[in-house]
Structures are given as structure tokens and as C-alpha cells.
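TL;DR need C-alpha cells for one chain.
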Amino acid sequence: MARRQLRRIGGSQMESLDEQVQDAGVVAFDFDGTLTTHDSYTAFLKWRAGPLRYNLGMIRLLPAALAYLGHRDRGRIKAAATREFLAGVSRERLEADARAFAELMAPRLLRPDAVRTWRRWGQRNAKLVIVTASPEMIVAPFARGLGADMLIGTELTFDARDRATGGFDTPNCRGPEKVRRLQAAFGEEVRLRAAYGDTSGDTEMLAIAEEPGYRVFQEKP
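>> reply
TL;DR here they are.
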């Protein structure tokens, strides 16, 4: 699979200090469960589908859920949910829905203590990166709102008509894949100034950080 260019989300919009620490390095944050209180992609699918359609879809996903008990591959169960709820939806529609979801849900999802830490690193001129297993397209509006320098996530696949196929264009961005994607962005010898995560899918990313933070954020909106 060809390596895709990672998308830059935009410069930091945080307030400056009288005296800033220059070039604090790269600081990586997991998104779901770290910056947020729970999984944003599941919340997006439920919000977009509505109660009736979502419950019907979950019934149809029962075979995939039972199969997950055997293979424990989160990428496969996420792909099954993506096919069920997003296959055939246009890129334009998904981007618009992602923006609307973020505007509505950011105050309800983002952890205040995580955002404070994010802003403190921004004040030190760190390069702030979100590294997530969730689809980039869904997390992108949150990343822009936070002023992220870069977003690294799982990418949805679109067909020739620019409609979601229900598949992924990159491997599920968790575990070792997070480090591989960081290396693609910053070089093979990348060393993070700090990293924050909350599951075993963040272990490898935390291992390359000078300051690893595991489940350090607890506040709810």
C-alpha cells in the first residue's frame, strides 16, 4: 500500500505566554478516551443514524460482534460498523455531518483537564499531534477546533464517485501502527516529548515518549 501524505490541520490558536519555551518538540495525544470521555466514532455513527436506524444496524452487526469474541481484531469490527452505517454516503455529506457533530458534541466530549494540558503544551510551542484509530474525517473538525498541528488517523476509502465504500484506505491506527505513522511523519528516529493515551492501543506510542501519560485525564465536562 502506498504511503499517504499526512494532512496538516493548521497552526496553534492558543494564547501566548510572556516568555515561551521554544521548540518543545512533538507531543502526541490519543483522541478517544484521552482527549474525550468516550469513543467519538461510535457516538458519531449513533448520532448520524438516529435511534431506530442505529438499533437496527446493531442487530445486523450481531454476527460481526460474535466473531469479534474470537478474533479480537478491533479493525474488523470497526470496518463492519462502517459498512453498515456509512457505505454509499458521499464525502461531501460526511464532511458536513462531521462538522455538525463536532460543533454539537465537543463541549460534551472533551475532557477539561486534557484540554488544559493540550493548551499548556501549545503555550510552550510544542507540535501538537492527535494520533487516533478513529477515521480522520470524523476527528478532523475537533482537531481544527483544538488548533492541532497534525492529525494522524485511520482513513476511509471512497470509490470513483467519491462515496464511502465502508472500508479503510490505511491500517487501523492503533498499537504499532501509531508509531509507524509517526515515523512516516517525523522520521524513523522520532522521539516524542510527551504522549498521552488510555488503552493498550497506545502502549507503543507511549514507549517512545520522554513523558508518557497513561490514563492521567479523568475530568468530565
